[in-house]
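2024-03-11 09:14:02 INFO worker-7 job=invfold-0412 stage=load source=structure_tokens
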């Protein structure tokens, strides 16, 4: 009787376990465990992975790598009996953030404009918008990405970390109280160069147009417009 019981156990192993060990690519995934370098994956990231449930191991791995191509630097997979796939991801670090007044949350964005994560807070250079933003894995519109690049440069040059998109332009309040209005397209370096030149001239002691008299610099036109107090 003892030998019969042992034989049954061995048979079970061969029938139910060995196939998974020898041919893991044939296993259907029913649960995905996801971790990043920061801990458990966000809800938005897990939702993206759930599209691979019910697929074979090999197909699920390929789909996940393709789905997250713009979000991750590296990935590794480990199959856990009987039907669990553990996914470990190294996320690309965000460069800046978009704050949405509509949902009171931040979209953390990489240098290519792809949303990496939705967060409740952020210390990154940010642009505030009144509408909602793209979902994780989606790319921001070109105007929002352009505004983020402007803010990132201003943070480097003047330690200005935020601006707000209103209608079709970006408004940035400088540390001296002057508002600078940027278009949402064009040559970034030319716009920043024009702003630096105007601020420099306004700050020159021999100039009669002192910066304290100027309340706004509008760079949306070929010839920038200065508005005074």
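2024-03-11 09:14:09 INFO worker-7 stage=emit residues=229
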């Amino acid at each position: 009787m003892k030998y019969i019981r042992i034989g049954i156990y061995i048979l079970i192993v061969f029938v139910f376990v060995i196939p998974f060990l020898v041919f893991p690519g044939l296993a259907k995934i029913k649960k995905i465990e996801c971790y990043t370098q920061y801990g458990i994956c966000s809800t938005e990231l897990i939702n993206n992975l759930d599209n691979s449930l019910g697929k074979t191991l090999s197909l699920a791995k390929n789909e996940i790598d393709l789905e997250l191509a713009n979000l991750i630097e590296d990935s590794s997979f480990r199959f856990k009996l009987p039907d669990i796939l553990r996914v470990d991801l190294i996320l690309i670090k965000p460069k800046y953030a978009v704050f949405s007044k509509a949902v009171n949350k931040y979209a953390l964005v990489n240098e290519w404009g792809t949303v990496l994560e939705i967060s409740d807070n952020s210390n990154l250079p940010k642009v505030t918008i009144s509408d909602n933003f793209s979902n994780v894995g989606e790319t921001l519109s070109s105007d929002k990405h352009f505004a983020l690049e402007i803010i990132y440069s201003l943070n480097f040059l003047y330690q200005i970390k935020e601006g707000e998109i209103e209608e079709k332009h970006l408004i940035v309040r400088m540390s001296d109280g002057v508002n600078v209005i940027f278009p949402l397209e064009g040559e970034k370096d030319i716009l920043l160069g024009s702003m630096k030149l105007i601020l420099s001239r306004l700050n020159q002691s021999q100039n009669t147009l002192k910066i304290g008299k100027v309340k706004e610099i509008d760079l949306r036109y070929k010839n920038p417009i200065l508005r005074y107090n």
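2024-03-11 09:14:09 INFO worker-7 stage=report msg="The chain has a mean pLDDT of 86."
2024-03-11 09:14:10 INFO worker-7 job finished
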